[in-house]
């Protein structure tokens, strides 16, 4: 017995599959999996254990991943808890699980070896990263959050894990100018669907990772597409692309045209994209803005 499953969302290979799939698919072996936490600021997930392969997506610090295999070459194959994405990543980026208390709300924030901005930073975390705060220390009028490993970040750059932004589209606008990066999922570089996912997450919406998944599942489908009647927060989809309606005749998207997150007049964008391989709009979906 076997079924065809999307490799991006199901930990199933011909030689190995998650134990939950036993009886559903044919695989050489089944593994229960072990949960780890991402300890790098960000790390690429790839379709194969090969650093020369293109990036499928990225995992951010503090996210959990269930690992089903590790190799002697230093790779791990697993599934992200955040959005269920499956892929290969370096096993050196994995550590023990510590439940998060906060997440990064600033576009990015430095992590220091202690509570002092003059210290050389240990790393740079993106919006959406998750941390466990153990206390706070004030130094020269600036409050630092002390993390589980003793490192420190500026406290006002964090929000509680259950915090919900009032306007998720505003979060997306803060990312204007961010470089476009295929498979990127951080404020240092991201693609069209990552812009939607990260901003919507800040507004309390848990969305799948890729644009085809979002087209099928995000919010509610708009039955009658009329660009004039679109609202702030509506999502427009093309083949392989998604953009956000930010206002009347205003599209916000991470795109390969400007190679950045940028605003574009909707009517001009529709005409321009129609002349490319992405073609006409395929669907529109409504994602509420508080």
Automatic annotation (TrEMBL):
Residues 31-99 form the SH3 domain. It comes from Roseibium denhamense. InterPro entries: NLP_P60_dom, Papain-like_cys_pep_sf, Peptidase_C40, SH3-like_dom_sf, SH3_16, SH3_domain. Residues 162-288 form the NlpC/P60 domain. SUPFAM superfamilies: Cysteine proteinases (SSF54001), SH3-domain (SSF50044). Belongs to the peptidase C40 family. Gene3D superfamilies: endopeptidase domain like (from Nostoc punctiforme), SH3 Domains. This is NlpC/P60 family protein. CDD domains: SH3 (cd00174). The keyword Transcription does not apply. Keywords: Hydrolase, Protease, SH3 domain, Thiol protease. The keyword Protease applies.
């Amino acid at each position: 017995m076997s079924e065809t499953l999307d490799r991006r969302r199901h930990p199933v290979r011909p030689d190995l599959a998650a134990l939950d799939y036993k009886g559903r698919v044919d695989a050489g072996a089944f593994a229960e999996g072990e949960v780890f936490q991402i300890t790098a600021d960000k790390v690429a997930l790839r379709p194969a254990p090969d650093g020369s392969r293109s990036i499928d997506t990225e995992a951010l610090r503090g996210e959990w991943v269930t690992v089903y295999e590790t190799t002697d070459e230093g790779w791990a194959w697993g599934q992200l808890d955040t959005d269920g994405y499956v892929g290969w990543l370096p096993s050196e980026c994995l550590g023990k699980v510590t439940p998060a208390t906060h997440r990064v709300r600033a576009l990015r924030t430095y992590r220091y070896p202690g509570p002092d901005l003059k210290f050389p930073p240990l790393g740079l975390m993106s919006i959406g990263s998750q941390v466990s705060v153990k206390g706070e220390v004030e130094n020269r009028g600036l409050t630092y959050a002390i993390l589980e490993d003793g490192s420190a970040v500026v406290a006002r750059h964090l929000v509680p894990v259950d915090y919900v932004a009032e306007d998720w589209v505003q979060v997306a606008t803060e990312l204007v100018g961010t470089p476009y990066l295929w498979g990127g999922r951080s404020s240092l570089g991201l693609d069209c669907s990552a812009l939607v996912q990260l901003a919507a997450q800040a507004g309390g919406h848990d969305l799948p990772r890729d644009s085809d998944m979002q087209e099928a599942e995000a919010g509610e489908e708009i039955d009658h597409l009329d660009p004039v009647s679109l609202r702030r927060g509506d999502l427009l989809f093309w083949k392989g692309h998604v953009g956000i309606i930010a206002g009347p005749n205003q599209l916000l998207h991470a795109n390969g045209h400007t190679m950045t997150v940028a605003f574009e007049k909707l009517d001009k964008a529709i005409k321009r994209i129609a002349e490319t391989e992405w073609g006409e709009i395929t669907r529109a979906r409504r994602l509420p803005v508080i």
